[in-house]
Amino acid sequence: MKTYCKHSRITEPAFVRESIEKFLKGKRSRRDVNEFLSRQSDLDSLSRQIADEIGRGEYRFAPIRYFRRMEPISGKIRIIGRESIRHQIYDYVCGTALMPLFRAKVGRWQTASIPGRGIADARRAIKQWAREPSSKVFVKLDVRKCYPSISREVLKRLLSRDVGDRRLLDLTFHLIDQYAGDDGLNIGSYLSQWLANYYLSYAYHFCEQHLSKERVNRRTGETATRRLVTHMLFYMDDILLIGRSKRDLTIAVKRIRAYLHDTLRLEIHPTWNIKHVGVEPIDMVGFTFYPDHTGVRAGIFLRARRSFRRYARNPTSLRLAYRCASYYGWLKNSDSIQYRRRNNVDQIVRRARNTVAASRKKG
C-alpha cells in the first residue's frame, strides 16, 4: 500500500517560512493579521520558533474561539471556529506538508475549496452534462452535518495508513484534537477544508469503483458491466449523481448510503428524490441547470436584484458597491443577459466598480 509525505520538512525553518508566506498571501490587510505582524515583525525568527516547537512536539497557540453564524440564504445556523494567527500558521504548515497526499487522493470531481476548481469548474461540468443525451435523471444528496459528524477515529486511522511521517502525523492529530467535542472538524479552518475533502475522497473513489452492475445476455451468456451513474460531482457535502434511469440511481444511492454509514460513519439526509433532467432543474453550486439554459438559484438572484436596486438609489455606498460587484459574477456566468439589459445591470456594476476603485485610491 502506497504511503505519502514520508520525509516532510516541517522541522525546517525555511519550509515554515514558505508556509507563513503562503498564509499571508492576500491577508496582510486584515486587522488581526496586521496586529499579529506588529507584534511579530521578524518572520524568520517566528519560523525558527515554530520549527523548533514542531521538532520538540510542543505546540503553542491560543484555543479556538467559537461563534454562531446564520447562512443568509438557507437560514442554517453554523458554529464557526476562529483560530488565532499562530494556529492558522500551524494549519498552513501541516496542510502544505500533506499536500502530496491531498493531490493524490482527492478526486477530479471534488471541487469545493480546491484551487483551480471551485464553483466555476463545477458549473462548467454540470452545464455540459445536463445537455448530454445519456443524462436522463439526477439525484442530489446531502451529507447530514458533514463537518461536525466526521469521525476523528476513522480520520486518524486513514491518515495513519496513508502518511509515512510520524512527526507530521503527530502534528496533524494534535491540530485535529484542538477542535471542540469528540468528533468533527472546525468549519472555517484551512486544514479542515482539505481534511474534509480527503475524508470524503474515500466515498468518491467508492462511487468510481463500485457503482456498476452486471447484466448477462440470455442468448450468448456473456456478462456485461454497466455503470449505474454517468456523471458524479462532490461539492464538499453535496453529492450530485446523474444517470440513465431511476432504477440505476436508486441502487447507486443505497450503496452510497451504506458505505457512508458503515465505513465513514456519515449519514445522508433522508429527503432525497430522483428527478428528470429538463423537467426539474439541477440545483447545484448556486446555479439551476437545464439542458438549454443555466439560471441562478432563486435566493441568490433575489439578493442580487435587491443589491442592484439599492445601489442605484444610493450610488455612494461602498458596502453596496462591493455587493454589486460580487453578485454580478452569478449573472455573468448564467443565461441572464435579458435581465441585465432590461435593468441596466452592467451599467450599475461599472459604477459600483468605479466606487470601489476610488475608495482604494483614497486608502
From TrEMBL:
CDD domains membership: RT_Bac_retron_I
Keyword Translocase tagged: no
Organism: Bifidobacterium pseudocatenulatum
InterPro entries according to UniProt: DNA/RNA_pol_sf, GrpII_Intron_Splice-Mob/Def, RT_dom
Protein name: Reverse transcriptase
Keyword Transferase carried by entry: yes
Family matches, as PROSITE patterns: RT_POL
Keywords: Nucleotidyltransferase, RNA-directed DNA polymerase, Transferase
Molecular function (Gene Ontology), one example: RNA-directed DNA polymerase activity
Chain coiled-coil ranges: none
